[in-house]
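Risk register update: the risk of archive-format incompatibility is retired. Evidence:
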Amino acid sequence: MPIPILALLTIAIGAAAAYAARYELRSSPRSVVLTRGFQAYLIFAALVLGPLSTYFYYFHGDWSLLYSIDTESIPSAVALVVIALQVAAGAGVYFLAAAALRAHRDGRALALVATGLLGAAVMYLAGRSRMVVVGTYAQYHGDFGLQPYEETSVLMGGIVMGMLLTLSTATLLGRIYWAARSTTR
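Archived output:
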């Protein structure tokens, strides 16, 4: 999964996690940082979103950045900081959605979810022509030696990581929702 798309999905997941925790957020006077929903989101981000981005960057770097930047020119420390910022952006959106939910503005939180999902869909459509071929930055821009996506290990990685992301996101949202509902009864 290309990192720009994953970054937009991170935003949607952060807002969706806050929405799932809306009962806890409204019933608890604690800071958002101290809520169980936020802590669950942080664990999810650290164990799923960060490693997912890291996998695609380090094993399929140029493809994961849609051939916009030559990954050989990026120091690994900078790449790790950018991945950490992606995870932090999801946490930031969680805070924005939590503020809206505590003000009983559910529509704003859902708009953040929709914005992330719509942004990911637009990025997919815009980058589709770059995603169907796999190679290096030089190969893409020199138009030589590219392989079809279906004939590379990126396909299997995309399937496995996509399933992991989907199942873990569903588990996260369900866990937060049911935990928040049970504590407010």
